[in-house]
Write a structure and sequence with these properties.
- This is Crossover junction endodeoxyribonuclease RuvC.
- With 179 residues, this protein is of the alpha/beta class.
- It has a single domain, classed as Ribonuclease H-like superfamily/Ribonuclease H (Nucleotidyltransferase, domain 5).
- Helix content is 55%, strand content 19%.
- It has a five-stranded mixed sheet.
- A hairpin with a 4-residue loop joins β2 and β3.
- The longest helix is centred in the C-terminal third of the chain and has 22 residues.
- The chain is globular.
Amino acid sequence: MRILGIDPGSLVTGFGIIDSDGRSSRHVHSGCIRVSGQDLVVRLGMIFEQVSELVDTHGPDVLSIEQVFVSRNPASALKLGQARGAAICAGVRGGLPVVEYSPASIKQAVVGTGSANKEQVQHMITMILGLDAAPASDAADALAVAVCHAHTQGTFGRLPEGVQALAFRTRGARRRSRR
């Protein structure tokens, strides 16, 4: 499976593409889409176009993306959500299923703790993918999103079919009960 991971940002959007069989993963391509200095609408269009180009060029099977988190600045969270939407639309335009992971889930899958810092994520991505050097922070975060999906799907895919259905129903029930 080829996975396109996205770490959305209104100024810098990280991307990471890996190939994975659920047990091991291989780095294909990663980097950053830098759109600073432009009007927000122009930046969103650039994110859409460049993610669309990644989809067309590399042919991923799925787009995995980090969920929005709300910090102290609601305006920043809104811009982040819009950048995320531009990337999601590019994936949908390319016919990809889109899956979302919380920041804590991504860190847990890659580092082993949901409170890991950026340096720990970079280090573990370098080790997991056997890279010669640590990627830029945003690219490492995007690769972490892709690795999180690979690990999640790899584990889920090894479960018997009946257990998969039960896990899906249980996960959905937990989400509904939190509302």
